Amino acid sequence: VPKPRVCLRCERSIETGRWIKMDTGKGVLCERCWKNMYLPKCRRCDKPIEQAAVYSSDGQLKGKYHRECFNCATCHKPFPDKSFYVYDGQPMCGFHYHQANHSLCVSPSCGKPIEGACAITFLGDRYHPGCLRCGYKGCDEPLEDYWEVDGMMLCERHAQRVEQDAD
User: Fold this and answer.
1) E strands along the chain, which residues?
2) Averaged pLDDT score across all residues of the chain
3) Which residue of 35, 82, 136, 147 could cross-link 48, Cys pair, CB 3.0 to 4.6 Å?
């Protein structure tokens, strides 16, 4: 009766399955331990990657991922058009990248990511240029320049009216 092989790492008996002889010639590893020691690990699930991996060729994203693990770090949804953003070393969909980067339009009627031109208020709020509008009740005039009165962003006409009403 042949002596059962014992994995040097996990010390389990290898009765069925594959085993790998150590380079030193002294002992063997079970297939699972060999994979854990020598195959690259997925950054999402930390399990060995045995087949094709997803990685960033430009170096923006460190490490490798299983195809099924490569998704937005926040919502875990796949990237439908194969494009993604990298924020803090993690792959992200456009919405969550802009949320983390504080570049979502703060207009209540919008809330979408801002790419390109951006209007920034004195308080640091960001808007698409077309979403920055007068805050006076009933006025919806787009603002290129604005006046801030009592915390509201107003067009010139309504800023003057509010100032006159305050006097």
Assistant:
1) 5-6, 13-14, 19-21, 28-30, 53-54, 65-66, 85-87, 90-92, 119-120, 126-127, 147-149, 152-154
2) 87
3) 35
pLDDT of amino acid 2: 66
Enumerate residues 6+ apart whose C-beta is below 8 A from 54: 64, 65, 66, 67, 70
Contacts of 125 (CB under 8 A, 6+ apart): 106
Which stretches of the chain drop beneath a pLDDT of 70?
1-2, 17, 25, 167
* Residue 67 contacts residue 76 (beta carbons within 8 Å): no
Amino acid at 165: D
Which structure tokens are listed for 18? 């594959």
Do 66 and 44 meet the contact criterion of CB atoms below 8 Å apart?
yes
Position 38 scores a pLDDT of 86
Joined tokens for residue 148 = 């801030």
Residue 103 structure tokens: 């570049």
Task: With CA atoms as reference, report the closest residue to 61 among 29, 83, 76.
Answer: 83
State the pairing for strand pair 19-21/28-30: antiparallel
